[in-house]
Design brief:
This protein is mainly alpha-helical and 734 residues long. The protein folds into four domains: 107 residues; 175 residues, Orthogonal Bundle (hpI Integrase, Chain A), CATH 1.10.443; 149 residues, no CATH class; 224 residues, hpI Integrase, Chain A, CATH 1.10.443. It has 29 helices and seven strands. The strands form three sheets. The chain has a three-stranded antiparallel β-sheet with strand order 3-4-5. The radius of gyration is 32 Å and the shape is globular. It starts with a helix and ends in a 5-residue tail after the last helix.
Length: 734
């Protein structure tokens, strides 16, 4: 390489060194300043020939004190991570302006900060500094009663994007659709419900808002119109325009004003628009400590579970016939249960003579007048399914679901109507009502529509009903966010202390502290507990859910003694199942679920259903995971800065049980890291271990449906970041 090229490389390196020194002059600890100095030192050495190769890199690491003469690292991994990230950044800056050749790039191990796996160009890093300065300027002016309506709306949009993590591409348009009833400022954690699209009746995602956004909303709510809208009508998103909306003009004017106030001697750049603001906010969150799983959740790349902020009202449920509760169909459960075998999951092809037995019973009940016309048709359909070859592979447990759908009168028929007299329009309306019935969970509605589809096929073959096309888009059950209130560990402990019955005590304990399903608890045997740290779940919802749990590392010591005593007593009694069932059969899943549900409601617990205890297990394991990998998060969670209702003195959040969880997730290496260093090195695959504890085959199932505390975790990191920015605008706060 020519001397002129080498001189150009050294000249550019010194120029970048001066720029970095100026930018980091106010910092006590260097970020890249010391790295660029050693890079220039290597460039000036006679061994450098214009190529950054392995030999030159070794010289750099020795000069910076990161490696010995043999090339072995002699500094902590986190410090080496900082040096490699900074060196990569410096080399890319120099290479962009010169003919520097790089044949040996620094290895950046992303185990420490996995969310930095996204690559950003140097221009975006430079824009981030400008974005940070604009934020500081914006928060210096607090909203007041004299602020204009348009400016207040602009500040709410900019604040929700920058501080509260509304990071979608069309974030500003979605924010403008917020109504007064969707803003909840009187909660312990103020939250705003934001639609995920501009479609009518779109699902609403919860975003916890910070201090500055709350201050803006307090003034805007009182200025809202009678119809509940808060933003100007012509600011909303529509599908009928191809020009820039009036909203964007005001927002760009507000950004230009902020730029002029911040950089008085610099012209307003052309790219200062909402794309710049959203992109910079996303980058600021990634580099500002917000976990990558939180950013994916905030961007709707991950449809996370959330905590409800209000009670969803529902009208009166339509019933088929209040005078005829379908007693005969209910009696089918008893007949089917006699065919069940606890040791295996039967299919319909393995059951003989069941259809003949049910037919004789139905004919006898019909002749006695105990079965109405609608019930007779429904029961005949259920018996017909047993005789069809296409249903032979159906599991008996799934067939019970069909019986339950009929017995519980899920199909919303009008009272007094006969099924055979329904017209096509009435069938269509019935299916629509079922798809929109909020009294049932979305999964239950989808299952019921599948049942109704097969019932319609049966009736149409018998020429008793018109054939309905179930591919109609109007029959689609909209996908909703999984909402569930999170029960706190100390509340469960109080509930366990007041529960005298062993079966109910075991059900609550294993559902919350081990995350077991109701069915899994019903089929547990005394021999399922092998030693103090091995619980074998052999019967489960799916074959992939069969697993082994270290229950001794998950259940606090205060409950283990009673658990061991109950297991020993059941073994001495020669019991087949852990819970006291009917002889050789386990406790029915539905019966146990209802008993625990009534117990939770009677105790005034946040969780109203037994399955909510399993959600609580998943939610708190996510919180405990972040306590392992973030020491400051652990401290704040214990003193109430994460959630005011959380009792940080609970055994789950103390060092002993956190060490146990570290061993469950990362093995002995994680336990040693936590006990010796105070924190563990997390990675993107850690969520797999939490999903395995729950028996999920996919970690996204856990994050999207079970970890309802994910929003709380995002709120904590976003507000921690906002506090740093607010302290920059007001030094007294720090």
């Amino acid at each position: 390489m020519s001397d002129s090229t080498l001189k150009a490389i050294i000249h550019v390196a010194r120029k970048i060194e001066n720029e970095i020194r100026e930018k980091e002059s106010h910092l006590k600890l260097p970020v890249v300043r010391d790295i660029i100095s050693h890079v220039v030192e290597v460039f000036l050495s006679p061994e450098f020939s214009g190529t950054w190769n392995k030999r030159v890199a070794l010289q750099f690491y020795q000069n910076v004190g990161a490696a010995d003469e043999d090339g072995r690292s002699k500094i902590p991994e986190k410090e080496l991570f900082r040096i490699n990230v900074g060196l990569d950044h410096v080399l890319r800056l120099i290479k962009k302006e010169t003919d520097l050749r790089v044949s040996y790039w620094p290895e950046v191990r992303l185990a420490n900060r996995q969310y930095l796996a996204l690559e950003y160009a140097p221009d975006q890093i430079r824009q981030l500094r400008e974005f940070q300065a604009l934020l500081v300027t914006m928060v210096k002016r607090r909203p007041n009663i004299k602020i204009k309506q348009e400016e207040l709306c602009c500040r709410i949009i900019l604040s929700m994007i920058a501080f509260d993590g509304v990071l979608m591409a069309n974030a500003d348009g979605l924010i403008c659709s917020i109504a007064r009833d969707w803003v909840h400022l009187d909660c312990d954690m103020p939250v705003v419900e934001l639609p995920i699209s501009n479609k009518p009746q779109a699902q609403r995602k919860h975003y916890y808002i910070g201090e500055y956004t709350q201050a803006c909303f307090k003034f805007l709510i009182h200025r809202g119109r009678k119809d509940g809208s808060l933003f100007p009508t012509d600011w909303r998103m529509t599908n009928r325009h191809h020009k820039k909306r009036r909203r964007r003009f005001f927002l760009e004017c507000e950004l230009a004003k902020l730029w002029t106030q911040t950089f008085r001697d610099r012209p307003v750049p052309e790219n200062l628009d909402m794309s710049f603001w959203i992109q910079s906010s996303r980058l600021s969150c990634a580099l500002g400590g917000v976990p990558f799983v939180g950013i994916a959740h905030l961007r709707n790349r991950l449809r996370g579970a959330q905590v409800p902020v209000g009670v969803v009202g529902s009208g009166e449920r339509c019933q088929i016939n209040s005078d005829n509760p379908y007693q005969w169909v209910r009696s089918m459960h008893k007949v089917i249960r006699e065919q069940d075998r606890p040791d295996e999951k039967l299919r319909l092809k393995n059951i003989r003579n069941l259809s003949g037995q049910l037919k004789r019973s139905l004919d006898q009940a019909s002749s006695n007048g105990r079965v109405g016309q609608n019930e007779y048709l429904l029961a005949s359909w259920l018996i017909w399914m047993l005789e069809q070859d296409r249903f032979k592979e159906m599991r008996l447990s799934n067939y019970k679901g069909y019986v339950s759908a009929v017995a519980n009168r899920v199909f919303p028929l009008e009272e007094g109507k006969l099924i055979k007299d329904l017209t096509k329009d009435e069938w269509v309306q019935m299916i629509k009502d079922l798809a929109e019935d909020v009294d049932y969970m979305p999964s239950s509605r989808r299952t019921a529509i599948t049942h109704l589809k097969r019932f319609n096929e049966y009736l149409s073959e018998k020429h008793l009903a018109p054939r309905i096309d179930f591919n109609n888009y109007a029959f689609r059950v909209r996908r909703e966010f999984a909402e569930c209130s999170i029960v706190f560990p100390h509340e469960v402990d109080l509930l366990l202390e007041g529960t005298q019955t062993d079966d109910r005590w075991l059900a609550i304990l294993l559902a919350f502290y081990c995350g077991l399903r109701c069915e899994e608890i019903c089929y547990l045997r005394p021999d399922s507990f092998e030693g103090d740290n091995r619980l074998v779940v052999g019967r489960s919802k799916l074959p992939s859910s069969r697993r082994t749990l270290p229950h001794g590392l998950l259940i606090p010591d205060r409950h283990l003694e009673r658990l061991r005593s109950i297991i020993e007593n059941r073994r001495n009694q020669g019991a087949t199942f852990l819970l006291d069932g009917d002889g050789q059969f386990p406790v029915p899943t539905k019966r146990l679920s209802k008993r625990i549900g009534r117990l939770l409601v009677g105790a005034g617990c946040r969780a109203q259903k037994m399955h909510a205890l399993r959600h609580g297990f998943a939610s708190w394991q996510l919180v405990r995971y972040f306590m392992l990998v973030d020491e400051r998060f652990r401290t704040d969670a214990r003193v109430g800065r994460f959630n005011l209702d959380l009792d940080g003195r609970h055994a789950w959040f103390q060092d002993d049980m956190l060490s146990d969880l570290a061993e469950v997730i990362g093995g002995v290496q994680w336990r040693i890291q936590y006990e010796m260093g105070g924190s563990c090195v997390g990675s993107a695959t850690d969520m797999i271990m939490i999903s395995k504890l729950l028996g999920h085959s996919n970690r996204f199932t856990t994050l999207e449906n079970y970890t309802n505390s994910l929003g709380w975790v995002c709120r904590y990191y976003l507000q921690r970041r906002e506090a740093r920015i607010l302290s920059m605008s007001n030094p007294r706060r720090s």
